[in-house]
Amino acid sequence: MRTLILFLLAFGAARSVAQPLKVAVAGISHGHSTWILGYKNKADIQVTGVWEKDTALANKAAKRYGLPAGIFYTDLGKMLDVVKPEAVVAFGSIYDHLQVVEACAPRGIHVMVEKPLAVSVAHARKMDSLARKYNIHLLTNYETSWYPSVAKTFQLALDSNYTGRIRKAVIHDGHQGPKEIGCSPEFLAWLTDPVLNGAGALVDFGCYGANLMTHLMNGQQPFAVTAVTRQYKPQLYPKVDDDATIIVDYPEANCIIQASWNWPYNRKDMEVYGDKGYIFAPDSKSLVLRQGNTVTQRQVTSQDVPVYEDPFRYLADVVHGKIQVKPEGLYALPNNLTVVKILEAAKESARTGKKVVLR
């Protein structure tokens, strides 16, 4: 009898672990919302509710993705109280991230926002305080977090000492421009707004480099940031920068972040230089390695290095306690607080023409 009881308990536990994560979506104006609205793996994630103030946009999404009208709400608090999700994923403006956390944290609901964490250090600190007070996970999702090439770069540089002491990183991110690549009017409305997005390309793509470099520096905060921004296309983006170069200084290293809506092609690549070697990750699954005169090119997959290529599966495993979030990790709150500090310092440097010292 005791054996049967233990078996049933174990079976029940296994079934509970296997249950999909109940997720609600807060805002769908972000172009990346298609990732969750069109999510196919129902065994991992169950979308139980969608909050969107723009009813026309909500109706369009319901038709496009075959979602029942009953799961859409115009009141965030009501949605959370009715559907009671375990986690919320935010796909509205960056400015709205604080509102989402203010609603979710007191209800004990975990949150994953699209990059970056917040539009300002003031917003980020409020979000951090709420997450800590109510003991929720507050994660930030970057596409580069899914890349096997990025995970392998970290493994080689930080665990295997392939590069030796890191002295410099050069990180390029961006594309031809949000209008040029066909972003929706709803997305453009806030992406090109200095309040709702925090800046232009500086925030939209500068956050990637700040996030990656913070991990490469094991969470260390830089001591200074210098930045230059440009408006090469003021007729398209009159309110925000469309190109930014950011230099992030550490006591024994620096990082050059080049974020732009003016690249002739889509790019997310990273170069890491040390006193022994060099690693270049030109795309999500390619690496070029060099030590001395020896150059190696290789392809990398998730079979070669542990990496979650699905951010929502990562969220589910964090919420269900299968993995722990390291403070310096790409999704982690401490890392992303530093990212927002770097971005805010970069905006101030570009405005004043001076180096900004972080305290």
Report on the architecture of this protein.
Helix 5 packs parallel to helix 6 (121-134), helix 6 runs antiparallel to helix 12 (333-352) and helix 10 (206-216) packs across helix 12 (333-352). The protein is an alpha/beta fold and 359 residues long. Residues 1-17 have low confidence and may be disordered. It folds into 2 domains: 2-143, NAD(P)-binding Rossmann-like Domain (Rossmann fold), CATH 3.40.50; 144-308 and 328-357, Dihydrodipicolinate Reductase, domain 2. It has helices at residues 2-18, 34-37, 55-65, 76-83, 97-104, 121-134, 148-159, 185-191, 201-204, 206-216, 311-319, 333-352, and strands spanning 21-26, 45-51, 72-73, 87-90, 110-114, 138-141, 166-174, 224-230, 243-250, 253-260, 267-274, 278-283, 286-291, 294-299, 356-357. The longest helix has 20 residues, at 333-352. The chain has 12 helices and 15 strands. The strands form 2 sheets. Strands 14-13-12-11-7-10-9-8-15 form a 9-stranded mixed beta sheet. Strands 3-2-1-4-5-6 form a 6-stranded parallel beta sheet, with helices on both faces. The chain starts with a helix and ends with a strand.
* Count of the domains: 2
Approximate shape? globular
Number of strands: 15
**Percent of residues in β-strands:** 15-25%
Radius of gyration equals 21 Å
**How much helix, percentage-wise, in residues?**
25-40%
Tell me the distance between the termini: 64 Å
CATH fold-level name of the largest domain: Dihydrodipicolinate Reductase, domain 2
User: Poorly predicted ranges (pLDDT <50, ≥5 residues)?
Assistant: 1-17
Average pLDDT, to the nearest integer?
94
**How do the helices and strands follow one another from N- to C-terminus?**
HEHEHEHEHEHEHEHHHEEEEEEEHHE
